[in-house]
What does this fold into?
Amino acid sequence: MAQELTRRGIAFEKDDNAFLATADLEELQAEADRRERCDYWTSRLAPSFADRERHAIDPAYRYSIG
It folds into this structure.
């Protein structure tokens, strides 16, 4: 989310994973909503793994919204 806001020139203040302030709250919320949709579809479409498998391969997903 921070990369997208930076790309769009929207100022924000962040500490670790927490957004503390933003110049455009509506855009921050819109970006969070897009991320939530990505998480939903990833859970529906990506392969699922048993706990043992997940621990062994440590799957991670990266999103690109264009």
